[in-house]
Amino acid sequence: MVAKSVVKRFKEILGEANVLEEEVDRFNYAYDAAVLEPKTPALVLKPAHRDQLGELVKLCNENNLPITVRGAGTNLSGGTIPEREGVVLLTGGLNKILEINEEDMFAVVEPGVVTSKLAAEVANKGLFYPPDPGSQSVSTIAGNVAENAGGLRGLKYGVTKDYLMGLSFYDVDGNLVKTGSRTVKCVTGYNLTGLMAASEGTLGIFKEITLKLIPPPQTSKAMMAIYDSVEGATETVAAIIANKILPCTLEFLDNFTIRAVEDFAKVGLPLDAKALLLIEVDGHEGQVAEEFEKVQKICKDNGAAKLQVAKDEAEKNKIWEARRSALSALARLKPTLVLEDATVPRSKIPRMVKGIEELAKKHNLAIGTFGHAGDGNLHPTILCDKRNEKEWHTVEKMVEELFEIALDLGGTLSGEHGIGIAKSGFLANEIGQASIDYSRRMKLALDPNNILNPGKLIGD
């Protein structure tokens, strides 16, 4: 319960309509896209201007109120599930694109700007913002930074941190901290910009974010490679990378996912295919032609039964529509969907996919596997019913074994979804207890009352 005097002060800062007290309103922000128990916050705050953020976080700190920042709530690891005695800070109203600088190729945005909106505005200026998480039509830039979101183009173009030039954020005392620059090079002070990427809201509250833009590729070509075996598809992925070719996108779908997507989107996918690779090459026209020819040969050499090359932009968009609808298609099949993103070195993709198949058979669970095969980031998606306690226990066991396989292959617990609370208990298996203790000491120094998204990433 938040003291009445504190609630009154919040209302003075934000206006009464922007402080949500009713339980039905607060429950809307009790959960995110992870399969975890919801926690209804004590209060929900809706700032209308970024300059209000410092005063809000200072007030929370002075009153030991845990604060969880929430953009669109698409988080898949419990990173935006709040504390029951705390507040949720909504940044959706802070959605202005403050500047798109065409001369120096950067953009400055407020935290609540939707990713696809920024990409579209940048494209209208003849520039390119590559990060494209699957939730880009609703996810916000601050959330992308907090989770270091990736996407389909991550193989060639990198992830959010690779475009993060600088930002300003509020510390727990409400002081404005500035880091990074609008210049290409900047080594002024500690690399706080890098520290804030993937910090999951545990170190500060973003006010403004500066992002690098690049020229768009001149041309591109896309195709769908159809396989009679999963092994052929996964070996193709490893072979493309081994031949030092970096497609713009290199996506994998297994037969289970293919059938779900076709039933959902009706885009003409081959239902009898054991696996598909969706591949796009972009760049200068000559380079694209040369690399595309090489990729086609590699696909055929590794057993592709058929190659369908997109004839135009419409056909190319149809290919990516199929991939982007995978999660929605699978979500229709069972009451509960558990989407994982353990990631392995690209050469280990064949072994990872084989391991997933063996786990599915061992535990008799329905699993659709798709994802960014080109950068080793697969999304094995377990379909189940959490209300069935026995089945849910099996799912939890399988997830543990999935993590073990990824780590044994030299991989990581999460490629792009973050740790949150869903994976914090497994973190020591990857980075060791000393790394966690070091991180906790840093967190304690910066946030002594532990009010900034407590319990996330490094646990309590």
CATH fold-level label of the largest domain: Uridine Diphospho-n-acetylenolpyruvylglucosamine Reductase, domain 3
Q: Strands across the major sheet, in which order?
A: 13-10-12-11-15-16-14
- Globally, the shape reads globular
- What is the terminal-to-terminal distance? 22 Å
CATH class of the largest domain: Alpha Beta
What does the radius of gyration come to?
Answer: 22 Å
Extract low-pLDDT stretches.
none
Mean pLDDT: 96
The number of helical runs is: 16
Derived from helix and strand composition plus strand pairing, the structural class reads alpha+beta
Helical content class: 25-40%
Number of beta strands = 16
Tell me the strand percentage band: 15-25%
- Corresponding CATH architecture of the largest domain: 2-Layer Sandwich
Number of domains: 2
- Biggest sheet: strands, sense, closure? 7 strands, antiparallel
Detailed description of the structure:
- With 460 residues, the protein is α+β, with helices and mostly antiparallel strands.
- It has two domains: 1-216, Uridine Diphospho-n-acetylenolpyruvylglucosamine Reductase, domain 3 (2-Layer Sandwich); 219-408, Vanillyl-alcohol Oxidase, Chain A, domain 3 (3-Layer(aba) Sandwich), CATH 3.40.462.10.
- The chain is 36% helix and 20% strand.
- The chain contains 16 helices and 16 strands.
- The protein has helices at residues 4-14, 23-27, 53-62, 115-124, 141-147, 154-157, 192-196, 230-242, 255-265, 285-301, 313-324, 326-331, 349-363, 389-408, 427-431, 433-446; strands at residues 19-20, 43-45, 67-70, 87-90, 97-101, 106-109, 164-170, 176-180, 205-212, 219-227, 249-254, 275-283, 304-309, 336-339, 366-372, 377-384.
- The strands form three sheets. The chain has a seven-stranded antiparallel β-sheet with strand order 13-10-12-11-15-16-14, with helices on both faces. A five-stranded antiparallel β-sheet has the order 5-6-9-7-8. A four-stranded mixed β-sheet has the order 1-2-4-3.
- Strand 15 and strand 16 (377-384) form a beta hairpin.
- The radius of gyration is 22 Å and the shape is globular.
- The relative contact order is 0.12.
- The model has no long low-confidence stretch (mean pLDDT 96).
